[in-house]
Amino acid sequence: MSAHLNNGDLASDARAMLAVLSKADEPGALLFELGVALGRFGVENIVVATFERAGSLGTDAMLLQKLPKDWLRTYVEHEYGRHDPVLRLCTRTKRSFAWTEAERELPPNARSAEVMAAAGRHGMTEGLCVPIHGRRGLEGCVSVSGAWLDIGPRVRPVIDVVARGVFDRCREMASRAHRSAPSHLTRRERDVLYLAARGLSAGAAAAELGISERTVTTHMTSACRKLDAPNKTAAVATAILRDLLGPAHRNF
Hints:
Blueprint: H1 10-21, H2 27-39, E1 45-53, E2 56-66, H3 71-77, H4 85-90, E3 97-98, H5 99-105, H6 110-121, E4 126-134, E5 137-146, H7 156-175, H8 187-197, H9 202-209, H10 213-226, H11 232-241
Antiparallel strand pairs: 1-2, 1-5, 3-4, 4-5
Helix pairs in contact: 1-7, 2-7, 7-11, 8-10, 8-11, 9-10
């Protein structure tokens, strides 16, 4: 079974999803819209979690979750967090990975196998984990699963971008932080973020704006710093979710 994305590029697919998610004003609405957005890829279950430190789930780890009934209780009672291969690989890599990759890449372990078998019995046969890294290192993860997943090379980058945006939005909701004013970013910073959201390279953005490529890079670096984003992709996702691109940039 396979889902189909729009005929547009990766940027337009991710933007379309983030634009919808940005309108969710509370966790329940965000979870609903996320389920709709990712459901076409087979996603049935979602967890957005934070880490107090690498490898350690915080007391308020679950920022957002939609999980099978009784799975959380089973997970806690059997101390699966200490043996979960997905959680273990999440602390060791920056790339997204299928759950099966965690089983293959880590040393065989009977308890790890028990965790994955139990997940399968709860309907979580296939999964994808997206580690979330910020300026302070590993900050959390977004993990999705279902009976089947379409997470091929065309789909996975879209989920990666959406996962980062959702994590930022969840953390914003959890901390009850006030939304940043549009003036937080300069006009040129919004310009380069907007062009990056359209899929333009730094060179193409420079030509579009009539400035040097180095200046584009400088503006993007400043925008990443202000948005506490580790890279351009994360900055674009955060800017879209926080509606920071301004009235002149909202037609994408």
